[in-house]
Every structure is written in structure tokens, then in C-alpha cells.
Backbone:
């Protein structure tokens, strides 16, 4: 059976750096940090980390009616908004499509954090009869995919991947495979997360994974820097419109890039820590390269997972060296971490960062890793410190995503050349 080629035709990012493709990309290229002091959590419940890449001005009523807003958690609202932005950007008229050939692969790492907290307080303060009848539909993870499918009448394959911080990268990979096999013409692919809630922040802070650089929020996320002290939480979502190449050409779509590789592996090592030698991540990258039919030297840019944690950044550096060798150590390979600006969006991170890779190809720009002022000697690759590189050659880009539990995912995007 002939495999369908798969292309990206629409981008819908939502983050503290910017909403919509143009505002988001302008913020990334200019090195704008979205990290601020947390406002969503009452002061008495804020842990040692009091900062996050929080979206102060997100208004769900711009994307859904009042009734739907009341019945959905913030993570669902992000998914809905991102899906609508992606459709608009793709210029798809879904009313003219066969709904059974339109699918959804949109996930979240953990679902309705805030709804869980809110309804627990109702339960304890007012009793079980006062809990909302929408409690379960507000908190379960698969409602990202469920709501997106209902709003867009997408009746094809419908999945919700949950692989922690690799969730939306795996969602893109799964959607890619579905179209490649000929099971759909169009797929919504991505993820969303709304983790800036008291219990979640407290849990991560207790595990000592969050930065406590509270006096300098915009400088707190500093991947690969010697002075990094943990990651910064972020919130938002991102959805990509994927299409079979034949379908995209038939409707005259603008093609941003082609997906050519999807590597997925497991560390089988630890629930939180990555393999110190980066071997699991390296295997995912090698699989993606092999599927793409390219050599390591052909990759121009990597958007690193780069969370700004002491162990994770070192392990990823080792993994990249293992796979790319002299191409990486000679600094020919450009790498950066957009989490330095967006914070870590957990289950939405992979999709947001896929959009960064795609726009890097579109505009031939290498985005920066901001706050990289004192490189860690163990992180000695070309991590594009502080300033974007314009007029670069970016024909092939890789996006890395790694999650708790040892989930590794690498995606490869290529400039579409017919």
C-alpha cells in the first residue's frame, strides 16, 4: 500500500508569549519571556515557586458561547481556542469536507486540574449534592479531543494520547500515522494544559523541580545555563492542521512543512529522571532520522526539550552528541529551547515547539534560548544564546519532547519541495 505524504497547513498556538501564529512567532523571535508572578493562585497557597508563564488576558468567550465556558475547564478552553485558530489559519472550509475523513488527536498530560480543586472544595464545604453535574466532563483528559471533534463535526479517528510532557508530540505523531495509512484526509493534532493551580504547583515545588528565581520572573527559565535551578510552569495549547499531501494540493492549501519522521521510545529507567546518558532520547531521534531517510548532517535545527532542569538538560545534550556527533560538537547544528520564553506547557509543550520548528523552516530563522548567559560546561553545544539568527538555512528541523515515566518523542519536519 502506498503511504500518504503528510503536510502541515494550519497553526494555532496559544501561550503567554502570544496567541495566534503571527503574535506567537514574533514573540519567540524577539526573545520575549511570558513568565510573570502568578495571579491565579491565592497568595497563601503559593509554594516556594511564585512564578509561571501565565496567560493573564485569555478570554474563552472569544472562542465559545457562555454556556460552553461554564461547562469546561481551562485546559479544554485552550484546546478549543487553538483548534479554531488552526482552522482559520489553514483556510479549511470543513463544511465541504467529508466529516468521516476528518479526525482528532489532541491530548493533555493531566486534564482539569482547577476543576478537581474547585469541586473538591465544594464537596468538603457544601456536601456531595452540591458538586457540579459537569465535574467529570470538566476534568477528564480526553475532553480535549471530544470537544474539538464536536465543535468541528470531525467524525473520523478520535484519540487522546497521555504521555506526560511528550503528550502533544505523540499526538502529532499519531495523527501523522493515521493520515499516512489513509484513514483520514485531515487531522487536528496537538494538546493543551492548564496546570497553574495550587495543588499542581505545590506538588512540583515539593519535588524541587521548579525554579524559585521569584525576584526575576523573566530570567527564571534558563535552559542549559550553569545557574538554572528548575523549570518554570507554563499554560496554553497548540493545534496543528495536518493533511494528506494530495488533499492539500487539491484544495490549493498553503503548505508550511512536511512531516517525515516520528520516533517514539521508552527509557524503562525512572518515573521522573531521564537516563543520565540520554540513551532513550537518542534512540527516539535515531528512529525519526531513519524514517525520514536523512542523515544527521542534514538536520539544520533542533528545538530541544530543554526544560531548564539540572539533570534533563545534561542528558539531552549527551543524547544529541550521541546521535549527531561532529555535526553537533562543531556547532554546525543549531539548537534552542523555546521553553526559555514559554515556560513548560507539559502536555502542550510538544505541539507549541513543533510550531516553532515549522516557523523556523518557513522564515529561515533560528529562534533563541534566552537567559543563556553562563553556559553549563556540560551543555556545550550551539544553543543559540539570547538572540535569534536570521537569514539562516533551515530546511529540516527536529522537535524533541520527553516526559515523566520515560516517554521520548522526536518529530522531523522538512521544507515542502513537491
Residues:
Amino acid at each position: 500500500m502506498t503511504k500518504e505524504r503528510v503536510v502541515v497547513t494550519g497553526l494555532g498556538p496559544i501561550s503567554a508569549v502570544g496567541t495566534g501564529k503571527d503574535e506567537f512567532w514574533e514573540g519567540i523571535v524577539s526573545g520575549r519571556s511570558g513568565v510573570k508572578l502568578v495571579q491565579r493562585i491565592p497568595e497563601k497557597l503559593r509554594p516556594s515557586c511564585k512564578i509561571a508563564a501565565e496567560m493573564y488576558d485569555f478570554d474563552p468567550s472569544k472562542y465559545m458561547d457562555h454556556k460552553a465556558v461554564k461547562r469546561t475547564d481551562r485546559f479544554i478552553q485552550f484546546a478549543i481556542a487553538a483548534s479554531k485558530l488552526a482552522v482559520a489559519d489553514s483556510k479549511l472550509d470543513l463544511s465541504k469536507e467529508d466529516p468521516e475523513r476528518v479526525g482528532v488527536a489532541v491530548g493533555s498530560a493531566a486534564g482539569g486540574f482547577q476543576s478537581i480543586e474547585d469541586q473538591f472544595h465544594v464537596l468538603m464545604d457544601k456536601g456531595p449534592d452540591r458538586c457540579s453535574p459537569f465535574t467529570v466532563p470538566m476534568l477528564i483528559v480526553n475532553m480535549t479531543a471530544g470537544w474539538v471533534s464536536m465543535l468541528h463535526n470531525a467524525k473520523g479517528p478520535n484519540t487522546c494520547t497521555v504521555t506526560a510532557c511528550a503528550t502533544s508530540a505523540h499526538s502529532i505523531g499519531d495523527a501523522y500515522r493515521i493520515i499516512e495509512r489513509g484513514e483520514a484526509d485531515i487531522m487536528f493534532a496537538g494538546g493543551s494544559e492548564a496546570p497553574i493551580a495550587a495543588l499542581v504547583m505545590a506538588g512540583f515545588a515539593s519535588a524541587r523541580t521548579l525554579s524559585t528565581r521569584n525576584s526575576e520572573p523573566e530570567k527564571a527559565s534558563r535552559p542549559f545555563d550553569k545557574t538554572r535551578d528548575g523549570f518554570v510552569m507554563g499554560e496554553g495549547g497548540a493545534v496543528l492542521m495536518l493533511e494528506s499531501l494530495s488533499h492539500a494540493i487539491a484544495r490549493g492549501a498553503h503548505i508550511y512543512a512536511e512531516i517525515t519522521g516520528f520516533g517514539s521510545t521508552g527509557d524503562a529507567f525512572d518515573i521522573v529522571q531521564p537516563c543520565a546518558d540520554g540513551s532513550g532520547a537518542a534512540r527516539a531521534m535515531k528512529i525519526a532520522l531513519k524514517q525520514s531517510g536523512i542523515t544527521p548532517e542534514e538536520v539544520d535545527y533542533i528545538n530541544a526539550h530543554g526544560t531548564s532542569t539540572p539533570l534533563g538538560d545534561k542528558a539531552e545534550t549527551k543524547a544529541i552528541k550521541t546521535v549527531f556527533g561532529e555535526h553537533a560538537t562543531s556547532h554546525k547544528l543549531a539548537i534552542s529551547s523555546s521553553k526559555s520564553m514559554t515556560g513548560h506547557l507539559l502536555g502542550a509543550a510538544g505541539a507549541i515547539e513543533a510550531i516553532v520548528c515549522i516557523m523556523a523552516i518557513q522564515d529561515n530563522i533560528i529562534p533563541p534560548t534566552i537567559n543563556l548567559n553562563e553556559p553549563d560546561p556540560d551543555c556545550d553545544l550551539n544553543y543559540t544564546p539570547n538572540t535569534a539568527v536570521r537569514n539562516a538555512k533551515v530546511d529540516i528541523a527536529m522537535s524533541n519532547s520527553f516526559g515523566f515515566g520515560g516517554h521520548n518523542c522526536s518529530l522531523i519536519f522538512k521544507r515542502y519541495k513537491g
Observations:
- DSSP finds 14 helices and 13 strands in the chain.
- Residues 6-250 form a domain with the Peroxisomal Thiolase; Chain A, domain 1 fold (CATH 3.40.47.10).
